[in-house]
Design a protein that fits this description.
8-stranded mixed β-sheet; Spore Coat Polysaccharide Biosynthesis Protein SpsA, Chain A; 41% helix; 30 helices; elongated; single chain; Rossmann fold; Glycosyltransf_2; alpha/beta; 4 domains
């Protein structure tokens, strides 16, 4: 069994830090991990729990979580609460270079390291989650953790097996007290750029500050606190909450769940309740450990009496976290969720510089309860700046102002206003703080290390492909080589989830669990679009491959498509072809199965003619990569900057461009690298690409029009099974094209095909025209004239870089019009007479005088932004 070891530097059984650990650890538990948590009693000294045995702390936590700790720390010479307190005060706070203390920190860290490693070995730990270890409460233990991580990771051959999450950092947690010294906090151990650690912070501001402090960090991400968005409700198990705490059923209830310490400013809540008298008989429930700071608790009790609100204030003691469940039957006593079910509002009137995230606000939002708060230092960063709404007490105010009290009173007495506010926050919260984003991040971060023999990473972008995915993964899992199954140790699959909502990820996880030898890694890409997903997958695979142990052979990044099928020897033939030709890119062969078009001979004829043309030109020129299947040498991929995403305007909004695969091939070829066609590596195209959009294929607008090319979902709304789905706007049953539709479909296909596949290669690489097979295809005279004309156009347009999509379209289209008759003659001679002649010219060019034809072709083709040339040539190449 996999084991997650959690260590909290908070030294308390219930806190925001522990709650966030529970939320994250639940994801691990659901995926089969045993979860252990060290509460940090033997780390942080100010909670008065050093070396204290655990008692009933487990009752407050889920039953799938086990409490653990590193044994033998009380046997480390000199290590104890006094030592930790002395180091924090002298070395960290005052910045004194006390030689004896500093030497003790180093020697203690080494002894602590040995015990930490021994504990991890004893529990066979496979992942570690450190909570708040950067905060310099105990720099000896922080250093010990870094030492233990390096030793254990090296000993076990682990990759990034540690998630190191910081909830509070020196500039976020009481900076005005000077407890941790002053910026740049010289005594705080800087984060180590370790191959075993991935750092997490809670918001962008913390990430920026962390990068300023430790710019060398190569692995750091933002993971906001997450919440299970379930509205708080009165139900069996918590229905008696108010009665059990002597709170009348008909009064507004202000909920405050927090530590009872001076920094939390619970006195503000007491003043608020007093100020509300006469407006509403509001009660206050304070959930927190009254024994943590007895003096502060006593002060608050006395203040309540002084203000005359004792009968309206309940100090309810420590409640189980919101995640623990509902009611006494779910554990020992009530939980925060039960309090929220009865609360009218949640209060968070904390100190200005004490909070970093403000979990109670997030829990209120996720539970459908309004909140009120102070504008603490990071409130706008986490909540206010993201559009969340509630009464806010300005930072400069010590106690609630009359205006603030009025806002709160209006909220408490107006159920409609509360419902509107809660609904607004709830909707926004589901997108900002959902559990799914944590799962996607963990999917990306918690990966097994790449084996030293892996030579290929297959990148598979996926969006709502739960139905197709099992067959696709099965075909990738059971690839064959020349002598039997293709060794799983030679390749991996990187599945890029592009915001799937149909259970796709669960399908992937089940498949991975059922095929343990098959390396299936899952990452996510939030920006919608197959181009963005493919780019993210290739960047990830490239970075991941460079961290693998050993191996100096070439490494290949491979693109696959989740709605197509690869042949059993697809990957081997691609790998062997790349290895033998030393190509920068290897392009697969793509085919349809003719039986899918039985009864539709005119449609099949248009497809078949296109495939035959492609086979000829790909053999001559190498072709351009198609996302359905190609490979690229990783070093070439990195050198040209990877896949580039272009953006276009559609209906006033920027959308990403579909042709990332072609654009990438252009970048590679324009850089002087070779592209080779590998026809024995074959991919079967899903016929739904034609079936579902056949009317748009005929009209040449399957992926856009008027200059805009974007991916659209070509899946039908229902499916009848197999690879030929029906539904949506697809005609029921196999319906062939009419003669006019067949002619139009072919014309758009050949118009799209010819500029891209016969002209563009030589435009980018004129030296191809000197190669004997290419000269044989064009004929010497046409090849020479094409070469001269390409040089003229390049000089005329002053094109130094032909990589952007609109830059290469213009000259390709111009050359097409100028040489169409001769190129079609060569296609007829090479492919077959049925290729025919060029489709009719655009009407605007038909009456242009012959001596000005080139001039007006230029005007026409450069009008690409309005889409005239785009619409003429089509955009699909969908056959």
């Amino acid at each position: 069994m996999k084991t997650l070891w959690g260590v909290s530097f908070d030294a308390t059984p219930i806190s925001g830090v522990v709650v966030e650990f529970v939320k994250t650890a639940r994801i691990f538990a659901e995926r089969g991990h045993r979860v252990l948590l060290d509460l940090g009693y033997d780390i942080k000294a100010d909670k008065n729990a050093f070396f204290r045995p655990y008692r009933r702390e487990a009752d407050l936590l889920p039953d799938w979580l086990e409490l653990a700790r590193v044994p033998g720390l009380d046997q480390v010479p000199g290590y104890g609460p006094e030592f930790v307190t002395d180091v924090l005060k002298t070395v960290v706070g005052r910045g004194e270079a006390d030689a004896a203390l500093l030497a003790a920190v180093d020697s203690t860290a080494e002894l602590l390291r040995d015990r930490i490693v021994a504990a991890w070995e004893a529990h066979d730990v496979t992942a570690v989650l450190v909570e708040n270890g950067t905060l310099p409460e105990n720099i000896a233990y922080t250093r010990a953790l870094y030492l233990a991580i390096e030793e254990y990771g090296r000993r076990r051959g682990l990759g990034r097996f540690v998630l190191w999450r910081d909830h509070d950092l020196m500039w976020q947690s009481e900076p005005s007290t000077g407890k941790y010294g002053s910026y740049p906090y010289p005594a705080a151990p800087r984060p180590v750029d370790s191959p075993h650690i991935h750092y997490l912070v809670q918001h962008d501001e913390a990430c920026e500050r962390m990068r300023e402090w430790a710019p060398e960090l190569s692995a750091i991400d933002v993971l906001p606190n997450i919440f299970d968005h379930e509205r708080a409700m009165v139900r069996p198990g918590n229905a008696d909450f108010r009665r059990d705490h002597a709170i009348p059923e008909d009064v507004p209830l202000i909920a405050r769940f927090t530590r009872i310490v001076p920094q939390k400013r619970i006195d503000r809540d007491l003043h608020l309740v007093a100020a509300l008298a006469g407006r509403t008989d509001a009660h206050l429930f304070v959930a927190g450990d009254t024994d943590e700071a007895p003096r502060e608790y006593r002060r608050l009790v006395d203040l309540a009496a002084e203000l005359g609100v004792t009968d309206r204030v309940v100090f309810g003691g420590r409640l189980a976290p919101r995640e623990a469940g509902v009611g006494p039957a779910a554990g020992s006593g009530y939980s925060v969720r039960d309090l929220l079910a009865h609360a009218t509002v949640v209060s968070f009137l904390t100190s200005y510089d004490y909070e970093s995230y403000g979990n109670p606000i997030g829990e209120a939002i996720a539970s459908g309860v309004p909140y009120l708060t102070t504008r603490y230092a990071l409130y706008d960063t986490v909540y206010g700046g993201k559009g969340f709404l509630g009464p806010v007490l300005d930072a400069g105010e010590d106690l609630p102002t009359a205006a603030f009290v009025d806002q709160v009173a209006d909220l408490l007495t107006d159920p409609t206003a509360r419902a509107v506010l809660a609904a607004h926050n709830y909707r926004l919260g589901t997108s900002q703080f959902d559990r799914d984003q944590a799962e996607r991040l963990l999917d990306r971060l918690l990966l097994r290390p790449m084996g030293p023999d892996v030579r290929l990473s297959v990148v598979l972008p996926v969006y709502d492909e739960a139905e197709n995915l099992p067959a696709v993964l099965d075909s990738l899992c059971h690839q064959r080589g020349p002598d039997g199954p293709f060794d799983h140790g030679r390749y991996e699959v990187v599945l890029v989830d592009n915001n799937s909502t149909d259970g796709t990820m669960e399908v992937a996880r089940r498949f991975a669990a059922a095929h343990p030898s098959f390396a299936l890694e899952v990452i996510s890409e939030r920006e919608q679009g197959v181009s963005c997903a493919r780019r993210a997958g290739m960047l990830f695979a490239s970075s991941r491959s460079r961290g693998r142990a050993g191996g100096a052979e070439p490494f290949y990044l491979v693109s696959a498509d989740a709605d197509c099928r690869v042949d059993p020897d697809w990957l081997w033939e691609l790998y062997a072809g790349m290895r033998d030709t030393k190509a920068a890119i290897g392009v697969c062969d793509y085919y349809y199965r003719a039986e899918h078009f039985a009864g539709r001979p005119r449609l099949w004829d248009a497809i078949w003619r296109t495939l035959r043309c492609r086979a000829v030109t790909f053999t001559l020129f190498g072709g351009f990569p198609d996302g359905k299947g190609f490979a690229v040498d990783r070093d070439v991929h990195d050198r040209v900057g990877g896949i580039e995403i272009f953006y276009q305007l559609r209906d006033g909004e920027f959308v990403n461009h579909l042709s990332d695969d072609w654009d990438f091939g252009i970048k590679v070829r324009a850089s002087g690298e070779e592209i080779h066609y590998l026809p024995r590596s074959r991919v079967e195209i899903n016929p739904r690409r034609v079936d579902h959009a056949v009317d748009e294929v005929i009209a040449g607008r399957a992926y856009g029009s008027n200059g805009t090319i974007v991916m659209r979902d070509i899946r039908p709304t229902t499916a009848t099974g197999g690879d030929t789905p029906a539904g949506g706007d697809t005609p029921a049953g196999p319906v062939d094209l009419t003669p006019d539709e067949a002619r139009q479909a072919w014309e758009f296909s050949i118009k799209d095909f010819t500029p891209k596949n016969t002209i563009l290669p030589v435009l980018l690489t004129p030296a191809l025209l000197l190669r004997e097979p290419v000269r044989d295809f064009f004929g010497a005279d046409l090849a020479d004239r094409l070469g001269r004309r390409i040089a003229e156009i390049r000089d005329e347009m002053r094109l130094v870089d032909l990589t952007p999509i609109h830059s290469y379209k213009t000259p390709s289209y111009r050359l097409y019009f100028e040489f169409a008759d001769e190129i079609f003659a060569r296609l007829r001679a090479t492919v077959g007479e049925d290729i025919g002649h060029p489709p009719p010219l655009p009407p605007c060019l038909r009456d242009v005088p012959p001596d000005r034809f080139r001039e007006f072709v230029r005007y026409y083709c450069e009008d690409r932004e309005s889409g005239e040339a785009h619409n003429y040539f089509g955009n699909g190449g969908v056959f």
